[in-house]
Design a protein that fits this description.
Distance between the termini of chain B: 30 Å
Number of helices of chain B: 14
Number of helices of chain A: 14
CATH class of the largest domain in chain A: Mainly Alpha
CATH topology of the largest domain in chain A: MetI-like fold
Oligomer: heterodimer
Largest sheet of chain B: none
Structural class of chain A: mainly alpha
Shape of chain A: globular
Order of helices and strands of chain B: HHHHHHHHHHHHHH
Largest sheet of chain A: none
Helix content of chain B: over 70%
Number of domains of chain B: 1
CATH superfamily of chain B: MetI-like
Radius of gyration of chain A: 24 Å
CATH superfamily of the largest domain in chain A: MetI-like
Strand content of chain B: under 5%
Radius of gyration of chain B: 25 Å
CATH topology of chain B: MetI-like fold
């Protein structure tokens, strides 16, 4: 009886591993083909599929540049926006959450409940109005219009509210007050250092989202030298690059490689961070 | 004592003030502006606009393209959500099963999640290249004699839709797995032990212990996926020509809104109307989900507040 049971479990286990392996190939193969093809010449790509890298990365890059695709500029633009968005989101969201967790004031519950509702509002409901409003101030085609809204990131406040509640040490804050630290000083010198792991987790997610964000930039940014990476990627679909497959794959690879690196460095923060907002008792 | 309390109250407001100001400027006002634009004939070409009441909405409902866009968005979302939840459930059950002892669960799920973080614009362009006429998929299929000659995948309505559905599934099943696993591992093991003693089999344990206890997370997954699905843009936009080709097969709500916005006149009034309609539709369905799947017992209320 027990022996049969063990055999059937082993058979089941075999099929599960088989399934997982197939799923893994389906999941990673497209990305692998992208990375490999970025190193292969257009001729090689046309001749057939290969899973091994070649040595044409540099010549692909030269083709990209010769067609007028300023990859370094796009890289710098995306990096600027993503970094600024991340810093602003993390700082102001934690500040807001600390105000909610650490203090009592009239309208606090209302504020917190409205934040919960705000998380649900899709960007479609505001983007057109936002564009028209920004154009009145001449802020379209300006990174400020992409960066500044992150001062009020409802989702990030929600995350930090839960996070700060779980790590807050009231005694430490009271001790700071007794030592004569200002309230803002307590936030900067006591709360923030304790909350660094949470700030880091949220920071990664914010960075990745800002790096990948296409829609808002596509609506708001118009001049070519301000294009972000996803916008440059979109131009790769055009006729200029027709049949320059190696160069196209290289352009695509360049926009996903930084994220892949970040992911392999910090995957533990990321995987744990995903369920932080959802599974909470 | 009184003095201290007053000081604390003032500081609370101070800390939340930047958020409130930022929200009024960049959150609330744009929403208000979109709503009011939706009742006007505003374009980007002229400075003034007229209030035209519900005309934009009437026009939208008579527009067959809009009906197509809404139907497409729903179909593309549902077709990817069902297998997404199914596969994720299977994986989560396997990875959390103490008896199966699947090795390196953390590594598997880390790799399964990876596509989610990659730039959707690049992913769409990648799949465009993979499925193009001279692309690797055709090369493989023709050389291994599976098909006689190359197929123009992205000119076929059904295949193009299937590719969008696949990409969405591919990007999201890992995240759903992680969420379900987090919910399952938070269930007390003693419940299962008691069930084993009572002679329950795996299916019964899943049906009567796991499923009811992960319901809040499943609602979370369903609603966030719905809200995201209704905003689907990057993938269908960049997989083909940016207009939902072939024959509007992958035209979604957001693509249509964008097309109104970038039309030669820049019809921001009509574009706003689409945004408002999608919002109303999404909210209505999300509330319906909350209502239908609400906890019938009182314990839920206590937990959520």
């Amino acid at each position: 009886m027990i022996k049969n049971y063990r055999i059937s479990t082993n058979i089941l286990r075999f099929f599960i591993y088989l399934f997982l392996a197939v799923l893994l190939i389906v999941t990673l193969l497209p990305v692998w083909l992208l990375l490999v093809n970025a190193t292969r010449s257009t001729l090689e790509i046309q001749q057939g599929i290969s899973l091994l890298p070649s040595q044409y990365t540099l010549s692909n890059y030269k083709i990209l540049l010769s067609k007028g695709l300023d990859l370094p500029q796009g890289f710098l633009n995306s990096l600027t926006i993503a970094a600024a968005t991340t810093i602003i989101t993390v700082y102001f969201s934690m500040l807001t959450a600390y105000g909610i967790v650490g203090y009592d004031f009239k309208g606090k519950k209302f504020l917190y409940n409205s934040i919960l509702v705000l998380v649900m509002i899709p960007m479609q409901l505001s983007i057109i109005g936002f564009y028209q409003y920004m154009s009145r101030f001449g802020l379209t085609d300006n990174y400020l219009s992409l960066i500044l809204p992150s001062i009020a990131s409802a989702g990030a406040v929600f995350f930090f509210k839960q996070y700060l509640e779980s790590i807050m040490i009231q005694d430490l804050i009271d001790a700071g007050r007794i030592d004569g630290a200002s309230e803002l000083g307590i936030f900067h010198r006591i709360m923030f250092p304790i909350a660094v792991p949470g700030a880091f987790t949220l920071g990664i997610f914010t960075f990745v989202a800002a790096w990948n964000n296409f829609f808002n930039a596509y609506i708001l940014i118009t001049s070519r030298q301000k294009y972000t990476l996803p916008m440059l990627v979109q131009t790769l679909r055009g006729d200029v690059y027709r049949h320059e497959y190696g160069a196209i794959y290289l352009g695509l690879a360049a926009s996903v490689i930084p994220i892949i690196i970040i992911y392999f460095l910090f995957s533990r923060y990321i995987v744990n961070g995903i369920s932080m907002g959802a599974v909470k008792e | 004592m009184v003095h201290k309390k007053i000081r604390k109250i003032n500081h609370g407001y101070l800390f939340v003030a930047p958020f409130i100001i930022g929200f009024l400027l960049f959150g609330l006002y744009p929403v208000y502006n979109t709503l009011s634009l939706s009742f006007t004939d505003a374009t980007l070409m002229k400075a003034d606009s007229n209030f035209i009441g519900l005309k934009n909405f009437e026009r939208l409902f008579q527009d067959k393209t809009f009906i197509t866009a809404v139907t497409n968005t729903w179909e593309l979302w549902i077709m990817n959500f069902i297998p997404q939840l199914g596969i994720a459930m299977l994986l989560a059950v396997w990875f959390t099963d103490v008896r199966l002892k699947i090795k390196a669960g953390g590594v598997w799920r880390m790799l399964f999640y990876m596509p989610n973080l990659l730039m959707p614009a690049a992913i769409a362009a990648l799949y465009f290249s993979l499925f193009s006429y001279y692309g690797p998929i055709n090369q493989f299929l023709v050389r291994s004699d599976l098909i006689p000659e190359a197929i123009d995948f992205l000119r076929n309505k059904e295949i193009t839709r299937a590719i969008v559905v696949f990409i969405q599934w591919w990007m999201w099943y890992g995240q759903t797995t992680i969420l379900l696993m987090a919910a399952m591992t938070s269930i007390s093991i003693s419940l299962y032990e008691a069930a084993v003693i009572d002679g329950a089999n795996s299916w019964k344990m899943f049906r009567y212990i796991t499923l009811p206890l992960i319901k809040p997370v499943m609602i979370y997954i369903l609603v966030t996926s719905l809200v995201g699905g209704m905003q689907m843009f990057d993938i269908p936009m960049l997989l083909t020509d940016g207009r939902g080709s072939p024959a509007n097969a992958i035209l979604t709500n957001n693509i249509m809104m964008y097309m109104r916005f970038r039309s030669s006149q820049g019809h921001i009034g009509a574009a706003s109307t689409i945004g408002v309609m999608i919002f109303i539709m999404t909210t209505f369905v999300a509330l319906l989900i909350f209502y239908l799947l609400r906890e019938k017992h009182d314990d839920f209320k206590g937990k959520s507040s």
